[in-house]
Design goal:
CATH architecture of the largest domain: 3-Layer(aba) Sandwich
CATH class of the largest domain: Alpha Beta
Helix content: 40-55%
Strand content: 5-15%
Order of helices and strands: EHHHHHEHEHEHEHEH
Largest sheet: 6 strands, parallel
Number of helices: 10
CATH topology of the largest domain: Rossmann fold
Distance between the termini: 14 Å
Strand order of the largest sheet: 3-2-1-4-5-6
CATH superfamily of the largest domain: HAD superfamily/HAD-like
Structural class: alpha/beta
Number of strands: 6
Length: 230
C-alpha cells in the first residue's frame, strides 16, 4: 500500500511511545474486569469462557456478545463500569514508565513538518493523558483516544478512525504507528498505511501476516520512512 504525503500520524501508546505494560499488574486488572462484568449481571459462564484469551480480548469479546441483546446505553454503562474497575491498575504504572528510544526526536520531526499527531490506545483515556503530560509530550498531540465505552478497541478500527476525525485528517492521508498485530489489523481494516515498531512481544512474521506496510526497529527510524512517503 502507498500513501501520499502523510498529513497525520496516529500512534499506539504502550510499547510504542512509552513502556507502560511492564509496570501494570494485568493479572489483577483481569480479575477485576471479570468481577465487574459479573456484578453487572453478565452470565458468569460466558465471562469465564471469554476471559481465557486474556484481558483485552475479553473486553472486546464480551462487548460483542452483550451488544446482541442489550441497548447501546446499557452496553456503554457496563463497559464503562468495567473500564473504571481496571483503571487503577494502570494508574500504578504511570510514574514508572519511560519514553521509548527515539520518541522525542521523531515527534519533533513530525511537528517541524506540520504533520498532525494523535494517540489511539486500548489503555485508559485518563491514564493515557496522565502519561503524556508527565513525560512532557502531551503538547505534540491534537487528539488522544483511549478506552471509551462507545468505541470498540483494536483490532477494530474505531479508536483509530475517531482519532483521525478529532485530528481533522482523512485516514487515507494518514499513517498508523504501533507495535502489535492488533495495531496493524486495526489500521488495515480502516485501509490505512501501517508501520510497526519491532517488539520482543510480537513476531515479525505475525506483523507481515497482518498486512503491515513497514517494520522499523525503533521509533527513531520513523522520520526516514515518512520522508520517503513524502
Amino acid at each position: 500500500m502507498t500513501v501520499l504525503k502523510p498529513e497525520g500520524v496516529v500512534f499506539d501508546l504502550d510499547a510504542t511511545l512509552v513502556n507502560l505494560g511492564g509496570f501494570v499488574d494485568w493479572k489483577e486488572a483481569h480479575t477485576r474486569a471479570i468481577k465487574a462484568y459479573i456484578a453487572c449481571g453478565c452470565p458468569e459462564g460466558m465471562i469465564h469462557r471469554r476471559s481465557e484469551r486474556g484481558l483485552f480480548n475479553m473486553l472486546n469479546s464480551v462487548r460483542d456478545e452483550i451488544s446482541k441483546s442489550l441497548p447501546e446505553s446499557e452496553l456503554k454503562r457496563i463497559q464503562g463500569m468495567v473500564y473504571d474497575a481496571i483503571e487503577s491498575c494502570e494508574t500504578e504504572g504511570v510514574s514508572h514508565c519511560q519514553l521509548m528510544p527515539g520518541c522525542i526526536p521523531s515527534l519533533e520531526w513530525l511537528r517541524e513538518h506540520e504533520i498532525r499527531m494523535g494517540v489511539a490506545t486500548s489503555n485508559s483515556q485518563i491514564v493515557a493523558v496522565q502519561i503524556l503530560e508527565l513525560k512532557g509530550i502531551r503538547h505534540f498531540f491534537t487528539a488522544v483516544v483511549g478506552r471509551r465505552p462507545e468505541l470498540r478497541m483494536k483490532p477494530y478500527p474505531d479508536q483509530i478512525l475517531k482519532c483521525f476525525e478529532e485530528m481533522g485528517v482523512e485516514p487515507s492521508r494518514g499513517v498508523v504507528v504501533g507495535d502489535s498485530v492488533k495495531d496493524v489489523e486495526a489500521a488495515k481494516s480502516g485501509n490505512i498505511y501501517a508501520i510497526a515498531v519491532s517488539s520482543i512481544f510480537t513476531r515479525r512474521e505475525a506483523l507481515e501476516e497482518a498486512g503491515v506496510d513497514r517494520v522499523i526497529n525503533e521509533l527513531g527510524e520513523l522520520p526516514g520512512v515518512l520522508s520517503v512517503l513524502s
